[in-house]
Design brief:
- Strand 24, helix 26 and strand 25 form a beta-alpha-beta unit.
- The protein is built from 32 helices and 29 strands.
- Helix 25 packs parallel to helix 26.
- The chain starts with 23 loop residues before the first helix and ends in a 25-residue tail after the last helix.
- The chain has 888 residues and is of the alpha/beta class.
- The strands form six sheets. It has an eight-stranded parallel beta sheet with strand order 16-15-14-13-12-9-8-17.
Length: 888
């Protein structure tokens, strides 16, 4: 079997259904699909292993195509790829490019990642509350609503002694170090606290000095601090608090915090207050995200190759007032994956408060209408309604409006830092400016934030060579520190509209040859002459929208125009997917994936393939078709499909089963052929909910996962328990199967679940052998029909209540889940596992983020027996359908 490297290129899209709605301007684009466009398909599929690429260059026929169609000058080929080889008398590639290793997913240095990833200390809120709002303490309480934590104050009024008592910084740091105070505890430093009203002027000065010292010490000791910036006028703040806020704004509140949320009168406005609590949760969720690594394609909540993935779009907003966006938001959210917040175009651009508050308004407008956005994990759950924001300050030199003199450029870098404080998903960083200031900004972004960096450069008013364009892509990589590169060129002739696209492909090859991170390259050409460049560019394309009164830039197209043109010009073709299994009328996967494809405007089909053997499937026309894109696999075929696959992921190998097949074309042994990769996303369906609930709080020496059952899903559960760092204990009616699991994944098999420590084969005996031993997680893979319940001692101990996970998604409430909920345990249903593993499948097939909320809603509607209002989805099976033994 050949060793192949999985890749994600040239994935599929969905055109707008109403082709008749293609504008005249869009129809002109079809003319741009000249014969040379065929080569773009070849080049796009050229994203393969280094050796395979070199074999392509060694093929005389393909070389002829390159010479005939790619608009590269001989001087460029000579300059970038090396001198002609005297023996071959043709174009050659330097030896370094031929033999270079695949680009690393690691930047290759010791720069720190986001310091707040897996953060477990208390968070700090600081600022001045208004007279009636009491905003800081109310926000602190909102974080405690569903979790166990404390609200910590460092100053209080002792009524008996009639004096203010203050907690010293050393005592506070000690309590943090020994985890007396830990996440989600909140330390509140309210410089308008009522305690100030009880003190005389000298004590007020002492109290102010103490709070400042605490803020400084906590910040310098790595605590996550957020400034609650309350407008003193609209919030009706007391005069003394206004003065204090003015004095401490820059040197305390901003200096000793990393994040910031802004309020006007929301403290006295219930509707507005709900969004402020949401903004606080979102800010801390962003702060604690896994750090983004340039070039790393590992799927996570912060992967650039998904956020800036295939057929993703961000909408360029160009209103001077953000409030003007609101009437158009509902329609815009249906078609885009992010909003570009053009700070340089806003009338309030020089006010930090107004810029950050404007971003909050934009998110608030979008929340009810988002369709295509991914999940943002937070505190045991997820935020499903966060519209990602691309934060941009475009200078005049770069086709923007912000001045580009030295003083203004310095101010621009300050504005970019504001974007980081606002927790933006993507920060656009122009690559043309001061290297030292750029490096300092990136140092801050890498060490304290999770924002993706998009290096950018615009060439305005002149046409440059392909070689120069390649250099710009390399420049936008920011020395391997950006997560994406965006180059926008100008041309004087429509025939050059591929200039940016061709340069992006070559730049990507050169980055790989140098062992640098491979990042998404966004390649565009300005103006109407460059419109077709937006069709060719597959990752993260800036767009306008039909509902808007004007475009942000000449030549911009809508997402629907682009997708329609891509389909008609065969930039991509629709694919067909399926759920493969037997007796699968119950499956919700067709509804779930059908809704996901529809929400992201991808024209794929997803059907059921119900066959008793895998052999029937692999002999079918469906499987052999060029349109076959992959399949979900359920019982009884998860192991039987493996011999027909070319590549297995590490997870699929370890678990010993495949639930996802991905079909891609690869260059192998001197030719293109279809390669079938097998993966397992079942384990992610179990891991993601448990990891969110546990929050990394696991003692690997004494915390156990109790796995009930020993079938195929139990293998995935055991793999998950190992990934979570839990000890594993198995209980199954037939111990022999459980012993096989223990041999494979480690762990202990118990004969019964008795509490008695004297019974050597019991769970109680096992836990008693560790003084701190406890069952932290229970994962049941048993059929719902057995009506299994846990012994009461496992769920009634207030200090050791486990998380109970039942993989069955029908019925919605099993006997086990009802028992666990009644006992006050946290529970995870099989329906959550279903959409979580489905999200993984969607991202593997499409190379873009999945519409999390859409997939979740469809699963819940179907599991409850409600009809899904979506013409693209299959008929819903009622809740009394056949119940499978394990999750598909």
């Amino acid at each position: 079997m050949s060793r192949l490297e999985p890749r994600a290129t040239f994935t599929i899209g969905r055109a707008h259904k109403d082709l008749a709605g293609l504008s005249f301007h869009g129809s002109k684009l079809l003319h741009r699909a000249r014969p040379s466009f065929l080569l773009s398909c070849f080049i796009e599929d050229f994203d393969r292993t280094p050796n395979a690429r070199m074999k392509c260059f060694g093929n005389p026929l393909l070389l002829l195509l390159l010479v005939c169609f790619v608009p590269l000058t001989l001087s460029f080929v000579h300059g970038v790829f090396g001198r002609p080889n005297k023996q071959n008398k043709g174009i050659c590639v330097s030896a370094s490019l031929q033999t270079a290793p695949r680009g690393s997913s690691d930047p290759g240095d010791d720069r720190p990642g986001n310091m707040f990833f897996e953060y477990d200390k208390p968070v700090v809120l600081l600022g001045c509350s208004s007279a009636a709002g009491d905003e800081l303490f109310r926000l602190a309480r909102s974080l405690q609503s569903s979790q166990i934590g404390e609200i910590v104050t460092v100053a209080s009024y002792d009524e008996k002694k009639c004096e203010v008592s203050m907690m010293g910084t050393e005592a506070l740091l000690t309590a943090i170090a020994d985890q007396t105070y830990r996440w989600p505890s909140v330390i509140v430093l309210d410089f308008a606290d009522k305690v100030f009203e009880t003190a005389d002027s000298q004590r007020v000065e002492n109290l102010e000095a103490h709070l400042i010292d605490v803020a400084k010490v906590l910040y310098e000791n790595g605590l996550l601090s957020l400034y609650v910036n309350i407008d003193p006028v609209t919030s009706n703040m007391r005069e003394v608090a206004k003065a204090r806020k003015t004095r401490f704004e820059d040197n305390v509140f901003v200096r000793y915090s990393d994040y910031e949320i802004c309020l006007r009168d929301e403290g006295s406005n219930e509707e507005g207050w709900e969004h402020i609590e949401w903004e606080l949760a979102r800010a801390f969720a962003r702060a604690k995200l896994i750090p983004a690594v340039p070039g790393d394609k590992t799927r996570s909540a912060n992967t650039a190759h998904l956020t800036m993935g295939q057929h993703t779009f961000f909408l360029s907003l160009s209103f001077p007032e953000i409030q003007q966006v609101e009437p158009f938001v509902e329609e815009m959210c249906q078609d885009v994956d992010a909003m570009e917040y053009r700070a340089d175009l806003l009338s309030c651009r020089d006010s930090r408060f107004d810029l950050l508050y404007g971003m909050q308004l934009l998110r608030r407008y979008c929340r009810p209408h988002v369709q295509r956005v991914p999940a943002l994990p937070f505190a045991g759950a997820v935020l499903e309604d966060v519209m990602p924001i691309v934060y941009t300050v475009r200078t005049q030199n770069q086709a923007g409006t912000y001045p580009d003199d030295d003083e203004s450029v310095a101010r621009m870098f300050e504005m970019l830092q504001w974007g980081l404080r606002g927790g933006v998903e993507v920060l656009d960083v122009e690559s043309a400016w001061d290297a030292l200031k750029t490096s300092e900004l990136l140092d801050s972004a890498e060490s304290r934030y999770s924002s993706l960096i998009l290096g950018s450069h615009h060439v305005v008013g002149k046409t440059i060579s392909t070689e120069e364009a390649v250099t710009l892509f390399q420049q936008c990589a920011l020395d391997g520190r950006s997560h994406g590169a965006k180059v926008v060129l100008s041309i004087d002739d429509e025939s050059k509209d591929r200039l940016a696209y061709d340069a992006s492909l070559i730049a990507s090859e050169l980055l790989k040859s140098e062992g640098k991170p491979e990042i998404p390259n966004i390649s565009l050409v300005l103006g109407d002459k460059g419109s077709f460049s937006r069709v060719l560019n597959l990752p993260f394309t800036p767009v306008t929208h039909e509902s808007l009164p004007f475009k942000a830039a000449p030549g911009q197209l809508t997402a629907n125009e682009i997708m329609t043109t891509r389909l008609l010009t065969k930039v991509f073709k629709p694919k067909k997917y399926a759920i493969l299994g037997h007796n699968i009328a119950y499956s919700v996967s067709p509804q779930m994936h059908g809704a996901a494809f529809a929400a992201t405007k991808l024209p794929h089909e997803y059907i059921r393939v119900d066959v008793p053997t895998v052999e029937e499937f692999v002999e079918s026309d469906f499987f052999k078709s060029d349109e076959f894109g992959g399949t979900s696999v359920t019982i009884p075929h998860k192991q039987a499909i493996i011999p027909f696959l070319d590549v297995l992921t590490d997870a699929a190998k370890a678990i010993g089963s495949v639930n996802t097949v991905i079909a891609r074309e690869e260059f192998v042994d001197e030719t293109f052929r279809r390669v079938l990769s097998g993966d397992n996303t079942d384990w992610r369906g179990i891991f993601n909910p448990l990891n969110r609930l546990l929050g990394g709080d696991v003692d690997s020496s004494s915390d156990y996962a109790l796995i009930l059952g020993a079938g195929g899903t139990a293998r995935a559960a055991a793999y998950v328990a190992s990934e979570l760092g839990l000890q594993i204990v198995y209980y199954n009616r037939t111990p022999e199967k459980a012993i096989e699991l223990a041999d494979k994944f480690g762990g202990v098999v118990v004969q019964n679940l008795d509490a008695s420590a004297k019974n050597e084969g019991s769970l109680g005996h096992l836990l008693a052998s560790h003084s701190e031993g406890k069952v932290l997680v229970v994962i049941s893979t048993l059929p719902a029909s057995v009506n299994f319940e846990l012994p009461t001692w496992l769920v009634e101990d207030e200090s050791k209540k486990p998380i109970v996970f039942d993989v069955n998604y029908k019925p919605y409430n099993t006997r086990l889940l009802l028992q666990a909920e009644e006992a006050g345990c946290s529970v995870v249903r099989g329906s959550e596992m279903l959409w979580e593993q489905g999200v993984g499948q969607f991202e593997l097939w499409t190379g873009r983020t999945a519409p999390y909320r859409i997939m979740k809603e469809v699963v819940l509607q179907n599991c409850g027996g409600k009809q899904v209002e979506n013409d693209d989805c299959a008929t819903v099976v009622k809740s009394d359908a056949i119940i499978p033994e394990v999750l598909e």
